[in-house]
Structure formats: structure tokens, C-alpha cells
Amino acid sequence: MAAQPQNVTGLLPAGEPVRFVAEDGTAGPPPPGYTEPSPERLREAYRRMVLGRRFDTQATALTKQGRLAVYPSAAGQEACQIAAALALRDDDWLFPTYRDSMALVARGLDPVQLMELLRGTWHCGYDPHATFTAPQCTPLATQTLHAAGLADAIRRRGEERVVLALIGDGGTSEGDFHEALNFAAVFHVPVVFFVQNNGFAISVPLAKQTRAPALAYKGVGYGVASEQVDGNDLVAVLSVLDHAVAHARRGGGPFLVEAHTYRMDAHTNADDATRYRDAAEVERWRAADPVRRLETHLRERGVLTEEDVAADAAAAEEFAAGFRARMNAEPEVDPLGLFAHVYAEPTRQLAAQRETLRAELAAQEG
Amino acid sequence: MEQLTMAQALNSALRDALKDDGRVLVSGEDVGPLGGVFRVTDGLTHDFGEDRCFDTPLAESGIVGHAVGLAMGGFRPVVEMQFDAFAYPAFEQITSHVAKLRNRTRGRVELPMVIRIPYAGGIGGVEHHCDSSEVYYTHTPGLRVVTPATPQDAYDLLRDAIESPDPVVFLEPKCRYWAREPVSFDRTGTPFDRAAIRRRGTDITLIAYGPMVATALAAAEAAAEEGRDVEVVDLRTLSPVDDETIAESVRRTGRAVVVHEAAGFCGYGAEIAARVSEQCFHHLEAPVLRVTGFDIPYAPPKLESSHLPNVDRILDAIDRLQWDDQVTLAAQGSVRDA
Ligand SMILES: Cc1ncc(C[n+]2csc(CCOP(=O)(O)OP(=O)(O)O)c2C)c(N)n1
């Protein structure tokens, strides 16, 4: 058993979001308790942010051509998405939501497999066990309990792995989120809950979601160590997630991180954000652009050159072109596959229903 | 009369209820300035103020539980669950409290509340956006469950639901939100608990509700071309069910087919088939057949059309209603006579 925390010392988040790099790209004094990730990792983060953003605009474009049923963009949240992927080892588990396709691309998942859900050919196209990535979760906050449970499995097996669960600001209002924090704390499991507070749950702004001074304060009541971070400062997000993941990995128990960021696009391509927010507000957040901020910082550090920037952009373009070409091919779907995985073995009833559909399809072809 | 979509008819019903009764409140996720993801609450916050139509924190159990308290405190809450599958977090509140509070308190606590749920498929929605969850609610005594198939019924049924002293689960077929017809606001249509005969016929009774009524009517037209005169019953109210209209129809036609999107096993059609057998046995010329979704989790968008009942499947069922038996029996009779 871990020792019961006697007071909130060590659990409370910083009073202001942790930040290394200001909006204009200039580095401030390092925040107490955190270290800047290595230049190599930051360089890699930049590459993946550029790629992630390009992937995201490509996916939105594919909705317009009817190639995707729907796409929830993560534009504006690149620092969070990429840091979530980089903070984990390949065999750590990630529990993403529908919003987090970019993080999964950054994790190295195949973008076309990943898009099966939103393309509408199946509910999850990748192998969770092979990728240590749970299916993208739509029922809000439910994944946080699964993450706590899987972290408990890791603890019981004595493994050194960590679980990171992604969730939005709106999702923190669901009961499951609170149950997950509590279970994770009581069983003292290696899980990091990473809240991307992007300001909105579809149309509902944070102010209607909570009266908490910050969502990061929700950890304290459950005895969960917590932090808040500037979600558009990759250096800060990665540094804080590194800290949280290390805390969980060394047996320190769960950790809650809230990143303050902003959803630049509508909720999905099907949403009309002009109905509930000002264009001026969106413009203000453009100044906090996470990709440009990291670029300026790394150029000033001499870690990133003009040629690097051009090369990363070209690589992202090539990635997007490959993705687009594969998505433009009409996907193959097999209606009979509907019956394949309802149970370990199809029941007699399902076998009969499959036969009915097979005959129907044959009659249509004949 | 105004031409309205079902979404607009629902909006009109909410408006008129808010106007007529100061106790009516509308709440849910994104029902405020956005007007709901299907725009059913469009403009209500603007026109009636945030006090009457408001966004809640994102928690369905919270939304329904909070409405229970509002109803106990003298209000008439109308809550929106954003999609069928996202009502499940509220299941405990609905089954353990909304459905039972009257009974537990010997009738002393009444919960005049409406839980609106966009439901069922046919819109190419990704997973968790297309569930046909009706029987979870119809299997729960204490809840009224209704589902409109037309804009006119959407208006009438929602007004009736809001005025009902009982809690009502109001299932809105998403694929019909954009269907349009003239809608009258005089409330002289079919009464709350009654089914409607949408098409008169003499050979078969086709029983449908919500999203499948349009498909049933299309099948009836197609069957007419094959010389079969199909009657279409739109149930409107799933609980309590209007046995009388169903039985009266089936006794006339002698054949019945029930159609729904939900999985067939333990589906709503099973209840209807059982009732028809019990109440119309001596009038039946053939077993009651069901045309339903397969017994699988709802299909992804690209496979949805393979899953959903359609005109052809209904026609196939109609063909299987033992039409030849009469001929055979007649033939046997003549042999014996000879
Ligand atoms: C249990 C549940 N209720 C409602 C929804 C519908 N819904 C999908 S996304 C969303 C908003 C979520 O906002 P937030 O958690 O802040 O995440 P974001 O979409 O901004 O990333 C809602 C209400 C859902 N998916 N699950």
C-alpha cells in the first residue's frame, strides 16, 4: 500500500499553467521542478507537429470529398497531441478519443487503418494489442476507467509500463472521469489522465462546464497529483508529461495533467462554430500557434535551420499525398463480415442470418 | 398549414409548450445557443431566455437526475440526450428513479418529464450514433415510450408527452428529422395512446413505428403492384401499446408482419407477434413474421444498408405468408369431396 497523503502538498497544480516558451517564441525562466526536454526530442517533436497538422488538414479535406463520414480536427492542439505520443514508450498504452487521430499518427499508426472508424468501414481499424493503443473512444470519459483498469493490470503483473488516457474538458463532467480518478488513486496505478482543455465541448464553453479554478484541481479531492500546463507550448507539455509519466512509472500512482489549449476548427466538419463563438476569439488564439512557437524557439536555439523547416514541410506534404491517394481508392467492405466477430464463434443464429444475407447478395448479383 | 420538417415541428412543439406553461424547462448538451446538434431547440434560448432553455454540464446521468429534482420541485423538464447511445450513462436514473418514483411513493411523487432521444440509424453515423434502444425503455414499467414517424405526429406527440403526468421517453427517428409535410397546431390528430392506420388495406397488416413507417409504406406501394393490398399501422406509442388497433386490423387482414431496425432477438416485434398470436389466433392465416435488423452491433456506415430492413426484405416476408396454403387446402378439399 502506498502511504495515504496527509495533506494537499505535492498534489496541487501550479497556480499558473507551466510554461517554458512565450507566445512569441522567446524562452522564459524554466519553471520550478521541470526540465526542458533534450534538443533532439524537441527537434523530433517539431517534425511530428508539422506532419500531424498536415495530416489533419488533409483529413478535413477528405470529408468535403465524401471520403470520410466525419472528422473531428485537432488543429490548434498539436503540442498536446504530439507530446502525448512522445511521452510514451512504444509499449506504454494510450487511450485516445475521437479527437486524437493526430496523436495516433504521431505514434506511428497507419493513417488509413486509423481512419476506418471515420471512413465508416469498421469501428476500429488497427490492432490495439499490437499498437498498445486502445480503440478511439466516443462515449465520453468511459475510456478513463478502462485506462485505470489496464494500469491496474500492469501493476498486478509487476510491469514497468504506463497508461496515458486522453480526455477533453467536457468529458471531465462525466461521472466516469471521477470514478476513474478515484479508482486509479485507491489502487495506486500507473496512469496519467491528460485533459486537453480546448475551451469547448461542441458549443458549450468551459465556463458552463465547471466553476473550478482549473480542471487540474479535480485531482486533489481524489488524492491524485496534478499539474496544469500551457497546452500550446510543446516544450512545457512534453516536460510536464515526461514528469507525470516518470511519476507513474516509478510507482508514484496516478497523475492528472490539464493542458490549456484551443480548438481552432469547429467541433467536426459537420458543426458550425459561428453559432456559438466569436471569430475574434479564434483570431486571438492564432497568435498562440503551437507550431510556430516551437519553430521560433528551436531556431533561436540553433536546433532548427531553414533547410530543416523546408524538409519537414516537404516530408509532411509527401505523407499527406500518400494518405490522400490511399483514401481516394474506394474501400473494400464485406457485408458478411458483419457477423464475424460478434462472439468468439458465430452462434447458430448468426450463421443462419449470415446465410440469409449471403443469399440476398447473391440474388442481387445474379 | 405550414410545411415543416420533423425537426421544425419538434421545435414548434417545444416553443408552444414553453409559451403555454411557465413550468416547462428545456435542458441538455448544446441545446442552448447552438440549438442542439439536430437544431431541434433552435432559437429557444434566444426567445425564452437562458432560464427556460439551458446547456448543462456534460453528464447525462446528471441531466436526468437533475430533471428528476426539478420535476419533484414543480417544474416540467424536457431534457435532450444528444444521441441514443449517449443516453446510457443516464440509464440508472431512468430505470431506477424516473420509472419508479410514482410507484415507490404510492403515487405521491409525480414526475411529469420528457426525455428526448434522437435514435436509430439510416444517416451514416459512426458507432454509438445509431442505436435502436427502444426496448430498454419499453421493458421498464413506469415509462411511457413514444416515437413519431411524421412531422405532424412529432408536434402532437411531443405536446402530449409534455402534458403527460407520467415520464415519457420520446424517441426521435434521426433519419426522419428532415422529412417535410404540412403541420397543423390545432391538436385534433390521433390521441396520445393510439396507433394510426397510415394506409388501409385488406390482405396484410404491416406494423411499424418511427424510422420504419416510411419504409413500410413504400413496401405497401410495391406490394400493391404485385396485387397485394397492405394495411400499414404506425404504432406511435410503444408503451403502452395500442393492442386494439393492431388486433382490429389483423382480424380483418389475417396476416401480420412487424418491422423494426433493432435486432430481432428479444426485440419489440417479439412482443407484438406474441400479442397478435394471443389476440387474433383464430383469424390468422399465417404465422406473424418479423423483419428486423440482424442480431449484431450496429453496422458501420459503409455497411449500414446491408443491416437495415428495406422494401425488398419486407416484400420477401409478405411472400412467405403462406398464400399457397389456401390453394392447397382448397385443392385437398375438392379431392375429398370427389
Ligand atoms: C457520453 C457521451 N455524451 C455525449 C456525447 C456527444 N459528444 C461528442 S463530443 C462531445 C463534446 C466533448 O467535448 P470535450 O470533452 O471537451 O472534448 P472535445 O470534443 O472538445 O475534444 C459531445 C457532447 C458523447 N460522445 N458521449
TrEMBL record, chain A:
Gene3D superfamilies: 3.40.50.970. The keyword Oxidoreductase applies. Residues 46-310 form the Dehydrogenase E1 component domain. Pfam families: E1_dh. CDD domains: TPP_E1_PDC_ADC_BCADC. Residues 1-38 are annotated as: Disordered. Its cofactor is thiamine diphosphate. InterPro entries: Alpha-ketoacid_DH_E1_comp, DH_E1, PdhA/BkdA, THDP-binding. Keywords: Oxidoreductase, Pyruvate, Thiamine pyrophosphate. This is Pyruvate dehydrogenase (Acetyl-transferring) E1 component subunit alpha. The lineage of its organism: Bacteria, Bacillati, Actinomycetota, Actinomycetes, Pseudonocardiales.
